[in-house]
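Subject: complex prediction, re-run

Hi both,

The earlier run crashed halfway through, so I resubmitted it with identical inputs.
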Amino acid sequence: MVNINIEVRLFAYLRELFPSDSRGLKKMEIKNDLTIDRLMDEVGIVEKEIMIVMINGLRKLDYNETMKEGDRVAIFPPVGGG
Amino acid sequence: MKICRIDMSTKNISFEEVKEEYVGLGGRGLTSRVISDEVNATAHPLGKNNKLIIAPGLFAGTVAPSSGRLSVGTKSPLTGGIKESNAGGTAAQSIAKLGYKAIIIENKPKDIELNLIKITPEGVTIEDASYLKMKGNYDVGNILREKYGEKVTVMSVGQAGEMRLTAASIAVTDPEGRPTRHCGRGGTGAVLGSKGIKAIVIDPGKTNEVEYFDIDKFRTAARGFSKAVLGHPVSGQGLPAYGTAVLVNILNEAGGLPTDNFRDGRFEFAENISGETMFETIQNRKGQTTHACHPGCIMRCSQVYNDKKGDYLTGGFEYETIWAFGSHCHIKDLDAIAKMDRMCDDFGVDTIDTGVAVGLAMEGGYLELGDVKGALELMEEIGKGSPIGRIIGNGAAFTGQAFGTERVPVVKRQALPAYDPRSVKGQGVTYATTPMGADHTAGYAVTSNILGIGGVVDPLKKEGQVELSRNLQIATAVLDSLGFCIFVAFAILDDTTAFPEVANMINSKYNTNFDINEILESGKEVLRLEKAFNQRAGITKAQDRLPEFFKEEAVAPHNVTFDITDEELDETLEF
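This time it finished cleanly. Structure:
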């Protein structure tokens, strides 16, 4: 088991979960077997199933996936416009 | 309901009963039908043979939520094809309450004239409006409210419409009387200007001629529909809080935020112009983060954006506007972008085509990329009517041509909006194939491509995109005809109870018995009519294409091209 470094980016109201001066951005060191699902638990996201998760700009639907060193993980609540 | 026909040559105003075949039509369905029936497709858009049709949707003035969209239809001076452009604001409800199904403006004065049309319960009159010459929409509204009363709705053209520029819009006032809602796309303001009309003042007073076959059933269905819209996390929570600007960050993450004239899919300063930053800025300056563009809108995605001193600067400040003047031009100053939005509303130009045009002035070397001061000064020129201002006010295609650039992101001469078609491929299909010219709202595939609404279709792969765009284009034609704001679609796509309530509303208002399939068939019929008009106007499949560079040049970060073939595009509206 090794630790990896990732960048977590939260948007809209999810930013309240991170310190207000962070602008939703946090570098995190995590275990390399941590799943997206568990990462969301650690960050404090409750309604996980309605969130939009992207890793390096690619939408992830399977929250059992793990991450790799340097990943950019973006989590959005339901948002829209047009 | 009746139709009012105004001849701007003879100044004759007549009233007609609604023909039987028009009874079930409203909004876009009606404007496109009248244009098809009455306008020769080869007519010059600014000539006497073109017409401008103003039609509220079928639910305008009713208790149906968020149903106050107004459609304007014409032959577009921008695309040369059929055009329907719709706006919020209070006009649709006021026109419907006065009992008009449509206003048809035809013919044109022999010489340049400036008139005003007044529509009240007493009737329709044409008055001289030469005192409004070359005034912006904000001044026009203030002068006309002083003259005709605080509560009137004003539709008007700014300097751009008077000059008949092809990006000219028609402004519609919001409940506070501000000209922040626009029939923006396709140069409808130039057509109104060509008819010698500066403004339309609408005042229903206490009149309300909106009728229902069974009002109780309608109310029940409207309540059910409201519940679905408010129950959806996007239309119930996301839009009221952050407005459409919240899309900046999600498109940036997805690599679909066109940057530096479609050279990149991400903007390094996206955070500076994001919905989150806008939200904080508005709060700090005591503006309004949420605002309804018309009474009865339950999503309230609009806002009031104040300047640094806390004074009103602009409203209805949308994602597409922020993108066009922002990442497209490499500008990260949200206040400067807000000023340019204000100028667009005041001079009466489409924010998308105008912002893309400013970026093309940069592309052509007239300004440096990212030159904020230069962009603001250039925008001022539109209001002055200088030659360079007229170039920009004619939109992206014209500006690209003026500067001899090849990299011009348009389809049918209309500028592409704020989603890169290579990394949001469903949008690319819509841009290419809608009869309107590049238009994001005509089939908003961002839903399934990015937002996870109405299922998931991978935005980077071609599979499923044609079908997605087709189905959305059909459904949108229906919503545009009913006068619904397109954002009700989020609930319709995700909540199976929503669309049946739409059918219930139609049937209880009009004493009909339509099922969902028959309603969708009416959307197909609108698209067939529009496509046929375009074909008669000389717009063929050869124009249902994106500019070549989208096929040839990969865009970062995903390094993808637009790989949907011409043959696949041609299947989109084959029905």
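The two ends of chain A are 44 Å apart (CA to CA).

- K.
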